[in-house]
Amino acid sequence: MTTALTMPTGTWIIAPGSSVATFVVGNLGRSVHGTVPIKEGTVEVGPDGSPTAVRGTLDLGAISTGHSRRDKDLRKPSLLDLDAYPTMTFKSHTVTATDAGWHVTGELGVRGMLAPIEGDVRSSIADDGTVLMVASAKFDRRHIALRAPRFLIGRIIDITITASVRRVP
């Protein structure tokens, strides 16, 4: 059995260049994979060495599915409306220790709406003291009023966040 990593108390920041969100969603009977860069984020760690709060911002304006026409379609007001809402935010409500890491609940801010999300986080420490956190969650697109026939776009989006964090000195 693995145990959750303990970290030094304080504020940890996400390294944007080495942190990314990936997603998988059904599209016309196939799986579409995509990436979204992480612009910024913080992890607050309490005296017991466990995270107490997590915040982050993703750059939806740089979303990439590997298909330029689909990426252009995602910008439309009927889908993600990226001209009006170019970022997605996350703010945790609870962070609970588990045997292998943490369970995090919170809300996504996207398309001017707030939507519930929860997921599990595992972490490991690198030789240079940075911590690699990998979070996985499932998101129901109906929570942000993103309506499309189910055969066209899957209702559930699998999200994985891979973030490298370092402690603020």
Please give a structural write-up:
By secondary structure, the protein is mainly β. It has one helix and nine strands; from the N terminus they run E-E-E-E-H-E-E-E-E-E. It has one helix at 68-74, and strands at 10-14, 20-27, 30-45, 51-59, 87-97, 102-110, 113-125, 131-140, 156-167. Strands 1, 2, 3, 4, 5, 6, 7, 8 and 9 form a nine-stranded antiparallel β-sheet that branches. A hairpin with a 2-residue loop joins strand 6 (102-110) and strand 7. The longest helix has 7 residues, at 68-74. The radius of gyration is 16 Å and the shape is elongated.
Question: What portion of residues belong to β-strands?
Answer: over 45%
Uncertain segments: none
Number of strands: 9
- Average pLDDT number: 90
State the oligomer.
single chain
Class inferred from helices and paired strands: mainly beta
Helix content: under 10%
- What gross morphology would you assign? elongated
Q: Largest sheet, if any? A: 9 strands, antiparallel
The N- to C-terminal Cα distance equals 32 Å
Number of helices: 1
- What is the C-alpha radius of gyration, as a whole number of Å? 16 Å
**Run of helices and strands:** EEEEHEEEEE
Q: What's the topology here?
A:
Blueprint: E1 10-14, E2 20-27, E3 30-45, E4 51-59, H1 68-74, E5 87-97, E6 102-110, E7 113-125, E8 131-140, E9 156-167
Antiparallel strand pairs: 1-3, 1-9, 2-3, 2-9, 3-4, 4-5, 5-6, 6-7, 7-8, 8-9
What brief labels describe this structure?
169 residues; 9-stranded antiparallel β-sheet; 55% strand; mainly beta
